[in-house]
Amino acid sequence: MQIRLECPEDTDTIRSLTTAAFKDMLHSSQTEAAIIEALRKAGVLTVSLVAIMDGEIVGHVAFSPVKVSGTAKGWYGLGPVSIWPNQQRKGIGQALIRDGLDRLRRLNAQGCVVLGAPAYYSRFGFMSDPELRYGDVPPEYFQRLVFTAIAPKGEVAFHAGFDAT
Ligand SMILES: CC(C)(COP(=O)(O)OP(=O)(O)OC[C@H]1O[C@@H](n2cnc3c(N)ncnc32)[C@H](O)[C@@H]1OP(=O)(O)O)[C@@H](O)C(=O)NCCC(=O)NCCS
């Protein structure tokens, strides 16, 4: 498997793949593909990676800046992340996420947040922190990974692209 940054020719596949991955997900807004396009249009897809197997895109992950109330800078949000349904649970998601987190570290990011299944994201070091909140989402579903010694406190806001419909 190869992992590389997205290029302009990938956008149609990323849209189809994201739509297919979230199609049957209970908690999905079904807007994930539109969110990626809004982030791209706004120029805030800081890290957007595709995984390639046998010459085909099999997965995608996006990271974009988030704001933390107070002074925290250099924080990012993980997601959406999508693997084609028939390629899931083969380690592709983990490889994409690990690669993306490494790239954020190399960009001197301070840390990353994610909204999602705690059991999945804890394997990368994400953990919930009662001092770092996201709206009224139950704390266990909102997790953070601190790259530096400083854990920020406050309310997190994703980019306006996440309001895309
Ligand atoms: C979630 C997703 C990105 C994971 O990628 P993947 O390549 O399928 O998963 P991986 O092979 O990297 O990891 C498999 C492991 O994750 C676990 N896992 C996968 N999806 C999970 C979920 N939603 N909740 C909890 N654990 C999950 C599997 O049980 C497996 O655990 P194990 O290693 O202990 O056996 C992928 O399944 C997907 O695209 N799902 C639909 C879209 C989605 O839910 N995106 C994330 C929204 S937060």
TrEMBL record:
GO terms for molecular function: acyltransferase activity. It is an enzyme of class 2 (transferase). The keyword Lyase does not apply. Residues 1-144 form the N-acetyltransferase domain. The keyword Acyltransferase applies. It comes from the Bacteria. Keywords: Acyltransferase, Transferase. Its EC number is 2.3.1.-. It holds the Pfam family Acetyltransf_1. This is N-acetyltransferase. It comes from Bosea rubneri.
